[in-house]
């Protein structure tokens, strides 16, 4: 998707086109690419597009709003920025810009553990902002258990309100686009909250074993954490059922944006099956391919409480920094409100599966 736009961006797709003009081939390969043949990357988007809405008429919109209840608190919108690594590769202000934009629009932020800005600095910018959304920190299991505990303590002390444990990426996916581009982190950009990576020994499977958390370890981590713990990367209903007994606070239905295992199911396909498995016992979030307010309505109708936005924030950030991300989120909020009104639905929390044709 190349070529300059002659008018200001009016949707996420416009921002994608502008970002491709601004990012170099190295950064574009990293942010835009997926694993393997990028089948899952494409399917994520196609699955939301394939769903059809079945609006109602004659319903009252009195008291309509987009707020949602999540982890015992009410938030202005069901929109959060997903954890994306190395945002300073897209714009010098990186994670700071994303955090400020999210707070300005009442949206949440999940900061990547591979952020290129210190987690304490990001939290200090927005934690005291009235009207902001959730402030969460994403966590990977580290080889050194002490480092995992240290990250949790730092996040808690800094003011983050929950941990999002990514469980679907013990190793990186085979990303052909990155390899063709010879991807390297540019000078001055690194995962500043983590120690420098060390060369792992053994096969890839043996290295993966050092990062996999079994159910007993997940349960222990949830019990020991001073913050609510959500699992990110759940696609199988049996795993969702198993999570019910582990003390986790929520699940994120995610295939890592198609960046880990190619040909996995789309998140739109998995979401209603996960929702049926947990039966409302845990809040669900979903990411992967969400680009429109109508996608958000579909996600909420299929059982999600909120959605996470990954690549769109990168496109807006690369295009215009914090104002770009804030504008993107405003566009999505407006699209969500328009879709809710036209579906005859008075609010985010009152959407049912009957709004989806065939649902």
UniProtKB/TrEMBL annotation:
Mind telling me which InterPro entries this protein's record contains?
Aldolase_TIM, Alpha-hydoxy_acid_DH_FMN, FMN-dep_DH, FMN_HAD
Domain annotation FMN hydroxy acid dehydrogenase: ranges: 4-359
In alphabetical order, the GO MF annotations are:
(S)-2-hydroxy-acid oxidase activity; FMN binding
Question: Where's the active site on this chain?
Answer: 256 (proton acceptor)
Q: Which residues bind glyoxylate?
A: 30, 140, 175, 256, 259
Q: Which Pfam families match?
A: FMN_dh
Coiled coil start-end: none
First-level EC class: oxidoreductase
Q: What's the cofactor?
A: FMN
Membrane-spanning segments: none
- CDD domains to which the protein is assigned, alphabetical: alpha_hydroxyacid_oxid_FMN
> What Enzyme Commission number does this protein have?
1.1.3.15
Residues that, per the record, bind FMN:
83-85, 112, 138, 166, 232, 254, 287-291, 310-311
Report the family membership. Belongs to the FMN-dependent alpha-hydroxy acid dehydrogenase family.
Q: Please state what the protein is called.
A: FMN-dependent alpha-hydroxy acid dehydrogenase
């Amino acid at each position: 998707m190349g070529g300059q736009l002659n008018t200001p961006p009016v949707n996420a797709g416009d921002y994608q086109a502008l970002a491709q003009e601004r990012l170099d081939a190295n950064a574009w390969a990293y942010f835009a690419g997926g694993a393997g043949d990028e089948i899952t990357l494409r399917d994520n988007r196609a699955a939301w597009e394939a769903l059809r809405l079945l609006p109602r008429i004659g319903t009252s919109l009195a008291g309509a709003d987009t707020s949602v209840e999540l982890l015992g608190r009410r938030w202005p919108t069901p929109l959060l920025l997903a954890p994306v690594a190395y945002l300073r590769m897209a714009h010098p202000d990186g994670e700071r810009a994303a955090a400020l934009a999210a707070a300005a629009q009442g949206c949440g932020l999940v900061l990547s553990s591979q952020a290129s800005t210190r987690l304490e600095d990001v939290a200090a910018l927005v934690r005291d902002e009235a009207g902001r959304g959730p402030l969460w920190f994403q966590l990977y299991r580290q080889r050194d258990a002490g480092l995992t505990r240290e990250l949790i303590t730092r996040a808690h002390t800094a003011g983050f309100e929950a941990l999002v444990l990514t469980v679907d990426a013990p190793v990186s996916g085979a990303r052909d686009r990155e390899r063709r581009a010879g991807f390297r982190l540019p000078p001055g950009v690194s995962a500043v909250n983590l120690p420098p990576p060390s060369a792992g020994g053994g096969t890839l499977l043996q290295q993966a074993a050092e990062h996999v958390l079994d159910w007993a370890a997940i349960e222990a981590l949830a019990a020991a954490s001073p913050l609510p713990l959500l699992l990110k990367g759940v696609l199988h209903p049996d795993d969702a059922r198993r999570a019910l007994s582990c003390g986790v606070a929520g699940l994120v239905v995610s295939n890592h944006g198609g960046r880990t295992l190619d040909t996995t199911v789309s998140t739109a396909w998995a979401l209603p099956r996960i929702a049926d498995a947990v039966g409302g016992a845990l809040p669900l979030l979903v990411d992967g391919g969400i680009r429109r307010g109508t996608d958000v309505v579909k996600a909420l109708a299929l059982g999600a409480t909120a959605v996470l936005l990954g690549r769109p924030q990168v496109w807006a950030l690369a295009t215009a920094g914090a104002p770009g991300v804030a504008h993107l989120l405003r566009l999505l909020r407006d699209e969500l409100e328009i879709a809710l009104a036209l579906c005859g639905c008075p609010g985010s929390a009152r959407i049912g599966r009957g709004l989806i044709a065939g649902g």
